[in-house]
């Protein structure tokens, strides 16, 4: 009889703990996520000047290293509510570049992206070499491979997923189901939760959330950008191909950056 009573008591404790956990398992439906992007500029510049025989490039690189840190840090903000979001750069807290050799398109991305998961569309404002474009198109379909690896980011448990985008860019993402919005930094979507960590190892850059603030987000806060020459992804790709036709080996990476 004593054994039966003990088992019943244990079952009650387990059920109580499960019920408490369920009550405390909170899901963030709207708010603002602050991201920090780090670009390994030394690695990016090394790739940029690889194969160049003119000593001027190496001298410019050495000069750059004397006045610039290895990692360039920029900050961005993702505001979201239900199935809509607006991603933009925090212009008040950016590290300034002071050398042409450090002018890397991938590291200097400043896209403004309005995403609508219900309609599977996005409106992206892109600044490409003094020209402002407004790119309206459907969301990129990403074939994510979810793994068992996890890590904590900004206080949230995240699971790792891997993918290849733009035919050759390897991407690692960490998402949390505690924030059900299926988006993330830049134009990355399609996971069963919000991406709080993003890395492109071969491109030498990462995006990681530093803070998640659960606050009401109004429609005004999610209003898409309206300035820029209207086009779609295919149209912008053609424009850039024409503009970069004389850029030689640097053209592919530059086009890749503006296609993200």
Automatic annotation (TrEMBL):
Pfam families given in the database record: Porph_ging (PF09697)
Q: Where is the signal peptide, in residue numbers?
A: 1-22
Superkingdom, natural source: Bacteria
For this protein, the record's InterPro entries field holds: GLPGLI (IPR005901)
Keywords linked to the UniProt accession: Signal
Protein's name in the database: GLPGLI family protein
Species name: Flavobacterium granuli
């Amino acid at each position: 009889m004593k054994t039966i009573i003990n088992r019943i008591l244990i079952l009650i404790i387990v059920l109580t703990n499960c019920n408490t956990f369920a009550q405390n398992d909170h899901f963030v439906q709207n708010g603002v996520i602050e991201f920090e992007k780090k670009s390994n500029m030394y690695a990016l510049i090394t790739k940029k000047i690889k194969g160049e025989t003119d000593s001027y490039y190496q001298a410019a690189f050495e000069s750059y290293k004397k006045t610039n840190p290895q990692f360039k840090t920029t900050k961005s903000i993702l505001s979201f509510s239900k199935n809509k979001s607006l991603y933009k750069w925090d212009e008040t807290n950016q590290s300034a570049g002071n050398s042409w050799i450090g002018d890397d398109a991938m590291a200097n991305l400043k896209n403004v992206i309005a995403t609508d998961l219900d309609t599977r569309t996005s409106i992206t404002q892109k600044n490409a070499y003094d020209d402002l474009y407004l790119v309206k198109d459907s969301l990129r379909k990403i074939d994510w491979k979810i793994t068992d690896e996890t890590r904590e980011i900004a206080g949230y448990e995240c699971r790792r997923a891997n993918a290849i985008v733009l035919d050759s860019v390897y991407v690692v993402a960490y998402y949390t189901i505690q924030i059900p919005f299926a988006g993330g930094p830049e134009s990355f979507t399609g996971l069963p939760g919000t991406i709080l960590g993003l890395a492109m190892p071969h491109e030498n850059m990462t995006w990681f959330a530093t803070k998640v603030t659960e606050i009401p987000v109004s429609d005004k806060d999610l209003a898409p950008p309206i300035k820029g020459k209207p086009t779609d992804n295919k149209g912008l790709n053609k424009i850039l191909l024409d503009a970069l036709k004389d850029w030689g080996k640097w053209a592919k990476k530059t086009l890749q950056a503006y296609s993200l």
